[in-house]
Design goal:
Helix content is 37%, strand content 15%. The chain has 2 helices and 5 strands; from the N terminus they run ααβββββ. The N and C termini lie far apart (123 Å). It has one domain. 20% of the residues are buried. A 3-stranded antiparallel β-sheet has the order 1-2-5. The chain has a two-stranded antiparallel ribbon with strand order 3-4. By secondary structure, it is an alpha+beta fold.
Length: 177
């Protein structure tokens, strides 16, 4: 008996390896895209957390005295609930990975009470001046497979006017309307 080979059986055997190679290439690209989406979400979360940390620090600084700069930096990094109010020492982990007090800059500026640039501003105090908290040189590392990259994010700055500056206002004299 004579057997004839069909063309389909030879072509199926030769396609088996090609299908596996195509799957490997397509799945690698697919998973890189999935990891890219996840890392972009992590980048947006970190951006939002750094913005919130700068705001939190500026709010804390506006309510406390100028001498509390170390405490303000700890509040930015660790959050107010993770800082001992008496010693200003951190009591928990940093809220944002790789953020340190070295990344935080706190600046107190006095007010120009007479609106004359030629005269020096008043000293920072109760309802006089502004406080600026800035987070600078924060490094973020993308963890995408085959495309890992570390870059420095821009400065996150918040400026607020002073409020009580950690002081109680003097009492109003009796008999004053």
């Amino acid at each position: 008996m004579i057997r004839f080979k069909s063309k389909n059986s030879d072509s199926n055997r030769s396609q088996r390896g090609a299908t596996m190679a195509e799957f490997a290439v397509v799945s690698a690209v697919f998973f890189m895209i999935v990891f890219g989406i996840i890392e972009f979400g992590r980048l947006l979360y970190t951006h939002n957390a750094l913005t919130d940390a700068a705001r939190r620090g500026a709010r804390y600084a506006a309510l406390h005295k100028q001498a509390d700069i170390a405490c303000v930096k700890n509040v930015v990094v660790y959050g107010e609930t993770h800082v001992d109010p008496t010693t200003c020492a951190p009591t928990g982990p940093a809220l944002i990975n790789k953020l340190t007090t070295a990344n935080v800059v706190v600046t107190y500026d006095g007010a120009d009470a007479d609106n004359n640039p030629a005269t020096p501003p008043t000293s920072y105090g109760m309802n006089l001046g502004t406080v600026t908290v800035s987070i600078q040189n924060y490094s973020f590392t993308l963890g995408i497979p085959f495309a890992t990259k570390t870059f420095t994010m821009g400065a996150y700055t918040t400026t607020l006017t002073s409020e009580s500056a950690g002081e109680e206002p003097s009492p109003i004299p009796a008999g004053t309307p």
